[in-house]
From TrEMBL, chain A:
SUPFAM superfamilies: MalF N-terminal region-like (SSF160964), MetI-like (SSF161098). It comes from Caldalkalibacillus uzonensis. This is ABC-type sugar transport system permease subunit. Belongs to the binding-protein-dependent transport system permease family. CDD domains: TM_PBP2. It is a multi-pass membrane protein. Residues 68-283 form the ABC transmembrane type-1 domain.
Automatic annotation (TrEMBL), chain B:
This is N,N'-diacetylchitobiose transport system substrate-binding protein. It comes from Caldalkalibacillus uzonensis. It holds the Pfam family SBP_bac_1. Belongs to the bacterial solute-binding protein 1 family. Residues 27-36 have a biased composition (Polar residues). SUPFAM superfamilies: Periplasmic binding protein-like II. Residues 27-48 are annotated as: Disordered.
Length: 295, 446
């Protein structure tokens, strides 16, 4: 019976860190979102309880819905493209051609590249006057790209952000999937080959089903990463033109540290949290239901 | 078994002790008062053998080593009078400074002295975070010795909170070669600006004028030039003075329309909707832009980019209509209320304000001193470029000293309006009506 407290005692340092660094800020954000918490509150520590006022205000603001749509569409596009590119690159590396080891190292470069530095480089690449992309496209004979202003319209600006995010996040997916591929016993493929399966059948009937748990985790991780994209957009467009490339994380940050309306910023952060949770829960259900059917 | 538990217990204890030590050392670092010496009157604070640590936050500059050396000399001067006070100068980047200061204030951990961007002074003063400096400046005999625009920016509710330190302002910078090629003179009025721009577009390969999206400091002073105001203090029904936006009135709308029409007329590339001052510098340095509007250090940045531009650069006053007041920005020094040694902090500020010190720092940063005595230094009047800036400085203006102004800038309120007009999403009147509404909403909460 003396052992009863020991596990808790041993857990306490980790628990202490988790509670103070994760649970407390989350709860605090939750509470602040129900209060009028502005710059005066910072000094006096006093704030007024206003219930769901911030949520009402945010949810009735058409700009919030635009930003939410931007966030979901950009996030979803990035997740899909990242997974797809990651999968293709992993398949390529898995074929073990000459130089595949070297390529495996080279593709990690975007992933280890700091996102701020990456953002600056991409912004310059797509600069309207001096950017290498417009130069290259013009040289290919596409004259419409001479001085083409990528960041003038939200759609093309988002497209550049999308490319940059995918460029930066596919290596992790590719390397993880490659490790997954190599954990599958080759006897399964040999057996399938005897039954006359081609590569496509092998991929869809052996590789992917066996990697389902891994895919689920990768889906969830990239969803989390891609829905809270901040640095890339901050560096490349700062939310512009005319706030056209705002996403929820940028919106929340701006309300907090530019407008100093911490209550509203917290409400936006909580809504963003809910959206993310909804996506993650639906992923988990999607994958789990499948499993039950098979069982 | 027992023994092993004992080890676990011990190591656990160690972890907690370390954590606790981490916490307390953090606190003493922030509080930095010698404990229990604060009960005496404030005067005891300035006794020369007092032992204390003073925390000073200064914004990072382009030349970190020189800044470091400068502050070592300043600290040495300060220590002649207060030998037992240790001054801890920290350099923080402009980009994160606002956020760092807010976090520090909220945590009760503000520095004793900090450099503040001019628009932050009213904001922090309204929060009650800053010490009012009227008594000190009278002591120093500096009550009337400031560059007017910076003094205005440092004043909140008729009290001075931000001590003017250094000032920056923008003037018209032009490429002499391109002007010669186009056969035009430097424009002195806005009508001339139009004619000159047209001639440059016709006769040279360069673009004419930097009507870019991300630069409120280009367009907002034009509102003054066209005879308008950004916001004025008016007495409300409750007899309290309150800022009221004037940005959607006729003159301001005309100025915004004039500025964005320069973009629409193609005097800058189409992508300039998203150009910031960094892009205009680049384009000017490459000889692709005939005119730009920039601060004095911007000239050095252009020369660094392309040294061939150096002898082609000319500097002239901004074009004029009703007037040609420049926006004067820059930095103020402030003492925080949370400081446990306000007297020492003020004494430190005073050292920085000494004529030679303030002039040297201004030179080092490429800006101009915030005191008239410092500005009299010949180095600011001998150079033909600097002279144009220095002459315009005393006639310059600051933005309305409202606590909300920093939020407008941070939230890109004016930039968004300019971009919307440029892209044709809204007319100048529509966009500015919205800006005025947003401004007045914020002013009402002050």
């Amino acid at each position: 019976m003396r052992n009863k407290w020991l596990p808790w005692l041993l857990l306490s340092p980790a628990l202490f860190l988790i509670v103070s660094l994760t649970v407390y800020p989350l709860l605090n954000t939750f509470f602040i979102s129900f209060r009028e918490y502005n710059m005066y509150s910072l000094v006096t520590g006093m704030s007024e309880w206003i219930g769901f006022e911030h949520y009402k205000q945010v949810l009735s603001d058409p700009f919030f819905w635009t930003v939410l749509r931007n966030t979901v569409m950009l996030g979803f596009a990035c997740v899909c493209a990242t997974m797809l590119v990651g999968l293709l690159v992993a398949l390529l590396l898995n074929t073990n051609f000459k130089g595949s080891k070297l390529l495996g190292i080279v593709i990690l470069i975007p992933w280890v590249f700091p996102s701020i530095a990456g953002g600056i480089v991409w912004r310059w690449m797509f600069n309207d006057q001096y950017g290498v992309v417009n130069y290259g496209l013009t040289r290919l004979g596409l004259d419409m790209f001479d001085g083409f202003a990528w960041f003038n319209q939200p759609f093309t600006a988002f497209f550049v952000i999308f490319l940059m995010v995918v460029w930066q996040s596919f290596p992790f997916i590719a390397v993880s999937l490659l490790a997954g591929f190599q954990s599958i016993s080759s006897s399964l493929y040999e057996a399938a080959e005897i039954d006359g399966a081609n590569s496509w059948v092998k991929l869809t009937h052996i590789t992917l089903p066996l990697l389902k748990p891994l895919l689920l985790i990768l889906f969830i991780l990239s969803t989390i990463w891609n829905f809270k994209i901040f640095d890339q957009i901050y560096v490349m467009t700062e939310g512009g033109p005319a706030r056209g490339t705002y996403v929820l994380s940028l919106y929340s940050w701006s309300e907090a540290f530019n407008v100093l309306n911490f209550g509203k910023a917290s409400a936006i952060a909580m809504l963003m949290f809910l959206v993310l949770m909804a996506f993650i829960i639906s992923y988990i259900r999607l994958f789990r239901e499948d499993k039950e059917v098979r069982a | 078994m027992k023994k092993r538990y004992c080890y676990f217990g011990l190591s656990l204890l160690l972890v907690f002790v370390l954590l606790a030590a981490g916490c307390t050392s953090e606190q003493t670092g922030g509080d930095n008062s010698a404990p229990e010496t604060n009960e005496g009157p404030a005067d005891s604070d300035s006794s020369p053998d007092l032992e204390a640590t003073l925390r000073v936050w200064i914004m990072e500059t382009g030349s970190p080593e020189e800044a470091q050396a400068y502050f070592e000399r300043i600290n040495a001067q300060f220590n002649e009078r207060y030998p037992n006070v240790q001054v801890d100068v920290q350099f923080i980047p402009w980009l994160s400074a606002h956020q760092n200061l807010i976090t520090a204030i909220a945590g009760g951990n503000a520095p004793d002295v900090s450099e503040l961007g001019t628009t932050w002074v009213p904001e922090f003063a309204a929060m009650g975070a800053l010490l009012e400096m009227n008594a000190y400046i009278n002591d120093w005999g500096l009550a009337d010795g400031w560059v007017p625009a910076l003094e205005e920016a440092g004043t909140y509710m008729e009290n001075l909170y931000g001590i003017p330190w250094y000032a920056g302002l923008r003037q018209l910078i032009y490429n002499k070669d391109i002007f010669e090629q186009a056969g035009v003179e430097v424009p002195e009025t806005y009508d001339e600006l139009l004619a000159v721009s047209e001639a440059i577009m016709q006769n040279t390969d360069a673009y004419a004028f930097p009507a870019v999206g991300i630069s409120q400091h280009f367009v907002l002073p034009m509102v003054w030039h066209f005879g308008g105001e950004l916001a004025v203090l008016e007495e409300g029904d409750d007899n309290e003075l309150r800022w009221v936006s004037k940005i959607n009135e006729a003159e301001a709308v005309e100025a915004f329309k004039f500025y964005t029409d320069l973009y629409k007329a193609g005097y800058v590339p189409e992508g300039a909707v998203n150009w910031s001052v960094l892009d205009t510098r680049q384009a000017f340095a490459q000889g692709d832009l005939a005119m730009t509007i920039d601060v004095a250090p911007g000239i050095n940045a252009m020369i660094n980019e392309n040294s061939e531009i150096a002898d082609k650069i000319g500097v002239a006053p901004l074009p004029s209509k009703a007037n040609n007041a420049s926006f004067v920005g820059g930095s103020n020094l402030a003492v925080f209320k949370q400081s446990s040694h306000p007297e020492l902090a003020a004494a430190y500020v005073n050292v920085l304000l000494q004529e030679d010190n303030i002039a040297e720092w201004a030179q080092l940063t490429g800006f101009f001193p915030g005191t008239l005595a410092g500005l009299d230094n010949p180095v600011f009047h001998e150079d033909e470029h600097l002279k144009v800036f220095a002459d315009a400085l005393v006639h310059g203006r600051s933005y309305p000293a409202s606590p909300s102004w920093g939020q407008f800038e941070g939230d890109n309120l004016f930039v968004t309006a300019v971009q919307e007009i440029m892209l044709g999403n809204k007319t100048a009147q529509e966009a500015l009506d919205e800006v005025a509404e947003a401004m007045n909403n914020a002013f009402e909460k002050e």
